[in-house]
Amino acid sequence: GEYDDILEWPFQGEITVELLNQLEDRNHHKHVTPFNNKTPDKHTNRKKKVDTNGWGLPQFIPHTDLGLNSSTNTQYLMNDTLYFRVSVKVHSKTKPWLAGVI
Asked: pTM of the prediction?
């Protein structure tokens, strides 16, 4: 992207994806993906071209879990709409101003 030149490569940190519960501000469905020394280089290095092969979870949440669940007071799909929150936490060794959540 436009600011890739100021980022540190290979990427080190974690990406959090949350599917938000539309009934209350808790019980969100959350997954954290760490990017560290164990992550294959092809997933942490700067992309020079568009790659549509993807990487991550083959199934983030089953479709059956999207509707109303009164026992957990969750409903992720409401009025044909899903809301996601994505946060990126950078672990920078050479650029301390990048540390934290972007």
From this structure: 0.76
φ, ψ for residue 6, nearest 5 deg: -90, -5
Q: Note whether 58 and 69 are within 8 A (CB).
A: no
Q: Please report, to the nearest 10 degrees, the dihedral formed by the alpha carbons of residues 57, 60, 63, 66 taken in order.
A: -170
> What pLDDT, in 10s, does the model give residues 79-98?
999 999 999 888 877 766 66
Q: Are 77 and 67 in contact (CB under 8 A)?
A: yes
Whole-angstrom distance, CA of residue 22 vs CA of residue 78: 7
- Of 79, 80, 74, nearest in space to 22 by CA: 74
Lookup: tokens for 72: 């957990």
